[in-house]
UniProtKB/TrEMBL annotation:
<feature type="binding site">
    <location>
        <position position="120"/>
    </location>
    <ligand>
        <name>substrate</name>
    </ligand>
</feature>
<keyword id="KW-0831">Ubiquinone biosynthesis</keyword>
<dbReference type="GO" id="GO:0008813">
    <property type="term" value="F:chorismate lyase activity"/>
</dbReference>
<dbReference type="GO" id="GO:0042866">
    <property type="term" value="P:pyruvate biosynthetic process"/>
</dbReference>
<dbReference type="Pfam" id="PF04345">
    <property type="entry name" value="Chor_lyase"/>
</dbReference>
<dbReference type="InterPro" id="IPR007440">
    <property type="entry name" value="Chorismate--pyruvate_lyase"/>
</dbReference>
<feature type="binding site">
    <location>
        <position position="82"/>
    </location>
    <ligand>
        <name>substrate</name>
    </ligand>
</feature>
<dbReference type="GO" id="GO:0006744">
    <property type="term" value="P:ubiquinone biosynthetic process"/>
</dbReference>
<keyword id="KW-0456">Lyase</keyword>
<dbReference type="InterPro" id="IPR028978">
    <property type="entry name" value="Chorismate_lyase_/UTRA_dom_sf"/>
</dbReference>
<feature type="binding site">
    <location>
        <position position="165"/>
    </location>
    <ligand>
        <name>substrate</name>
    </ligand>
</feature>
<keyword id="KW-0963">Cytoplasm</keyword>
<comment type="function">
    <text>Removes the pyruvyl group from chorismate, with concomitant aromatization of the ring, to provide 4-hydroxybenzoate (4HB) for the ubiquinone pathway.</text>
</comment>
<keyword id="KW-0670">Pyruvate</keyword>
<comment type="pathway">
    <text>Cofactor biosynthesis; ubiquinone biosynthesis.</text>
</comment>
<feature type="binding site">
    <location>
        <position position="40"/>
    </location>
    <ligand>
        <name>substrate</name>
    </ligand>
</feature>
<protein>
    <recommendedName>
        <fullName>Probable chorismate pyruvate-lyase</fullName>
        <ecNumber>4.1.3.40</ecNumber>
    </recommendedName>
</protein>
Amino acid sequence: MLDSKQLYVSTLIGVNWETPDWTQLKTTDKGKWLLERHSMTKRLKLCCAILDVEVLSLHRCDVKTLTESERNLLGYEVCLVREVILSGDNAPWLCARTLVPMSTLTEQEADIAQLGAVPLGQRVFTQANARRDTIEVATVNIDGNILLARRSRLWVNDKPMLVSELFLPRAPMYQEDN
């Protein structure tokens, strides 16, 4: 399973992000997932008894390894990279890759680097001023599965981070249309 998890992370790194057609997307069940502006963690928890987080990697990346679009959204600085799989009732639902500029990891937000198995959304959306902007979407083909992904910038106490999320084949967003 480790190979598929790394494939998911690699997919998030290389995906071609696009600005969504808001008018079309907001009328579909899948679009409502992709355009979610609040906590994805909270939304996923509504679909299961137990939501688990498996940390795949936690490391620093140099600004040179960021893509141009990542630098445009976050600025030109070293980032902490957090890669995780969120599973609902033992089914892998979401692969997430978060870029957190080191300047974000100061004061109240210093604990974000130490989250471990705590979902990022659970931590970020406890702040009254947390918000999400710059939502982008993508469609990818992994092993014959057409999967959806989104990338959005989160702000907490006016400090940014960039979250890329790949909805895995067993994610609730795909089950709602059935």
